[in-house]
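Posting this for the archive.
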Amino acid sequence: MAEATVGILQRPARATLTALGTVLGVGSFVAVLGLTATAASQIDGRFTMLAATEVTVHDVAREHTEFVPLAFPDDAARRVERLNGVEHAGVLWPVQFRDGRQVSSSPVADISAGRQIQVVAASSGAVRAAEPRLRQGRLFDTWHDTTRQRVAVLGAGMASRLGITTLDTRPAVFIGDDAFTVVGIVGDVRRRADLLLSVIVPRSTAQELWGPPKDGADMLVATRVGAAQQVAREVPYALRPDHPEYFEAVPPPDPTSLRSGVGDDLGELFLLLAAVSLFIGAVGIANTTLVAVMERTGEIGLRRALGARSRHVLTQFLTESAVLGSLGGVIGTSLGVLAVVGVAVARDWTPVIQPTTVLAAPLIGLATGALAGLYPAWRAARIQPVEALRR
């Protein structure tokens, strides 16, 4: 240890550059693992606040009977909203026109503008469950549902496509020959982004004009945080106690497993990057140590002539590499932790760092330095005293 310490202190600049490779490698290792854990925690939190409050119910009655065109009862929203934890619920489905009717903003349909315009039949509860942000006007409500009013709500993209920029002129959209007064324009939604490119009409009006859905319907349920799993189990029985098998309630995935999956995927990627950084650091230590061996050939020869054996020279150079690796590991660990905390503070996140990572990182630096110095130390131990002194 004494000889290794003297050898390091004799060339402080070279020792610093040698340890810098391990500093960067270990620092990257700690930083990427800490940032991975922190990012996974943030993904979990954001998922819980949105996706974990959404339940989708599919009408699968046609898999059991052909005599039920629409399994959802007329008061489906009221039945589900009585469940504890439900905030909004409603039925919706895309309307399919077999006669090729077009959607336009004028009585004389523009065929080029009317293609691929989706019409969605939705109850007022389904629209509220999507949590829309209105740009103009209002949403249709239960009264419009009950009285089968011919009103429509447009997504911002669809309103722009139809040339409707304001509601001051009381615009209307024409679905075939049927006129619908536009009562609101939605700028954004938290759920069902496809509604932004749709013309949304009341469910009861759509059933009266075009009949029940051709391919079944869905129900969108917005719940309070923590209630989605329970609501998903209760919804089929609340809708049809006699035939709960007519419905398939899809709860959100378990946030714990989602976080674990995201963390594993990110961890594998960033762990590979950290391993590459460690490898580059090890190569740097190996190159510097090998150059040091070549420059210190005379010193090695003198030590051998004074009685040092091959194993003594091997141990000396191996110890130098291990010490530099350990110092680099400690410094790199500190810098990695500071990087994780700094990013978390800047992003207003909660930093997450595993204690095992912090404890293992200096040992990784030690192992990296020892492995990197193994070949140069072996080369130094094989130098013959007479040849070394002659050089």
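Residues 31 and 242 are 57 Å apart (CA to CA). The first helix runs from residue 2 to 10.
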